[in-house]
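Appendix B, record 7
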Amino acid sequence: FDIIKEEANASNDVDLGVADLKKLCEEYKKVYLEQGKKFPSDPYEQLHACVKAVFGSWMTPRAVKYREINNVKSLLGTATNIQTMVFGNMGDDSGTGVAFSRNPSTGENILYGEYLINAQGEDVVAGIRTPQ
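Structure tokens (predicted):
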């Protein structure tokens, strides 16, 4: 993804054009082809693959190290959240955000949230841009 952004001279995801995003999709499809599979056109197959990937990430070295560094113990696994996505990157009158029932940094029992204008959900959770 970073290579496509560099080629397009784009600082942020929203700076990419339609042709750039189509190229990105083709690159992601190649990941499937490298595994001898065709990218599924059925949305239920796509959903199943995503849920499987989340559950499969629980014991990756990065996840294990994260839990070790942050002293996260006694958890049985992870969870998935399935939701309908909308376009948050349609201009300055749209956006995306996340909300928590507790402050994720301190654990304090208060409603906590972050948002970005003209962005998609991945921009918030991946740290691509600084939320408000």
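Remarks on this record: The mean pLDDT is 88. The beta strands are 95-100, 112-117.
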